[in-house]
């Protein structure tokens, strides 16, 4: 527990910071977005979420550390160190103190019981593995890795076409961050609409950004939270859930998933933790005529 730890009934939530920076401009991130709509929200978007002059939309990479039912659970594992990602220069051969940030929360890699990946893109599975003696080995030796089967199958199929273009490193990621934990660690590929982790935690399918994407819901002692992964890349997608992300596999399906699960968050007064919101804060939201508004932010 730290000053920033969020308690939800019997569950605690912490954030493991990895990286914050510029990856996309507003129109590159959300191609249908309207600058005027962003200008209207400039008071809170600037400086954390948007730099109006350069149009940079700021993002972070991070994990959430969840303690529930006696287990220590890591949700998403960021970009990882030393991963070759030439198509995405800010992620290429990254060297961060992610494991030190985990240690600052009193947690060593061997303490992690379960790793949950909300989907299998390069910025959500990176720390699944660490480079040791030239090989990618599971970073969390005692963990079970819980991965969406639909994404696994999708990437396995993609990986069969060795010559296909792979600008975002999906296939490279499959080989250096996904296959090694399926082959050399305990792993579970889950499938379907929902997967129950324990009394407080469940995975809910939220397809669209990737075919097998999911969110994590936390419900304990009458309190709730939504770990949204890439259901929302940027908080402006809460205000306008129809906004697709440039990298969505299926933008319309993603928008339907977003509206449905943000509705769950409203019904349950659950703060929404985006996978890439700088600072890792959760948005407390309410209905706003078919869309949503952000009423306040949690400190974590
Ligand atoms: Zn992502």
Structural description of this entry:
This protein has about 300 residues and is α+β, with helices and mostly antiparallel strands. The protein has one domain: Metallo-beta-lactamase, Chain A, CATH 3.60.15. It has nine helices and 17 strands. Strands 1, 2, 3, 4, 5, 6, 9 and 10 form an eight-stranded mixed beta sheet that branches. A five-stranded mixed beta sheet has the order 11-12-13-14-15, with helices on one face. It has a two-stranded antiparallel sheet with strand order 7-8. The chain starts with 5 loop residues before the first strand and ends with a strand. The mean pLDDT is about 95. Zinc ion (ZN) binds next to α5.
Short description:
The protein has 300 residues and is α+β, with helices and mostly antiparallel strands. It is 24% helix and 32% strand.
Helix and strand layout, with pairings?
Elements: E1 6-8, E2 11-25, H1 26-29, H2 35-40, H3 42-45, E3 50-51, E4 56-68, E5 71-75, H4 98-103, E6 114-116, H5 122-125, E7 129-132, E8 135-138, E9 144-148, H6 149-160, H7 170-184, E10 186-190, E11 194-196, E12 201-205, E13 214-220, E14 223-229, H8 236-239, H9 251-267, E15 272-274, E16 283-288, E17 291-297
Parallel strand pairs: 5-6, 6-9, 9-10, 14-15
Antiparallel strand pairs: 1-2, 2-4, 3-4, 4-5, 7-8, 11-12, 12-13, 13-14, 16-17
Bound molecules: zinc ion.
